[in-house]
Amino acid sequence: MENNKFIGRSIFFGGIIILFLILFFLSKKKENDNTNMILSSPLITVGNIDTYIHGYKRTARYSFHFSFEGKVIHSTSSTSSFVDNYVNLGNTVLNKTFPVIFNSKNPTLNKLLIGPDDFKKFNIPFPDSLQWVKKKLDE
Q1: Which residues of the chain are modeled with pLDDT < 50?
Q2: How far is it, in rounded angstroms, from Cα 39 to Cα 43?
Q3: How far apart (Å, rounded) are the C-alpha atoms in residues 64 and 101?
Q4: 68-82, pLDDT tens digit by residue?
Q5: Distance separating alpha carbons of residues 127 and 96, to the nearest angstrom
Q6: Bridge-partner residues for 97, per DSSP?
Q7: Residue 56 has what pLDDT?
Q8: 40-137 CATH choice from 1.10.287, 2.10.25, 2.60.40, 2.40.50
Q9: In sequence order, which ranges of the chain are alpha helices (DSSP H)?
Q10: Is the pTM higher than 0.90?
Q11: Alpha carbon 49 to chain centroid distance?
């Protein structure tokens, strides 16, 4: 009887782990698809961070806006606790400007570029003007 409970629990927790792995890989695929769509017709401009929300564990979410062809585009950018330390930046980024890369045909496909890894995804050199961000991320 105890052995059946152990097997049942093992199957249950194994299923949960598999589900999380599938969700993780699907989110990475979506991120790569978005990156490729942005790179199909890229433009870079400057965006202003409006809000910062400290998420679960070490995640962060920013809302920001930028202008393109006379229109203001509002968007959000989230970070992952697996790879980013953006939570170290906290409110220091509020009302500051950062580069935004976006698809010129569909500006809602965009990415706020804050840290070195963001720039690396798009093969853009990390600017000297954002070295303070790098130092803050390393804290």
Answers
A1: 81-82
A2: 9
A3: 13
A4: 999 999 999 876 544
A5: 15
A6: 48
A7: 66
A8: 2.40.50
A9: 2-39, 116-121, 131-137
A10: no
A11: 14
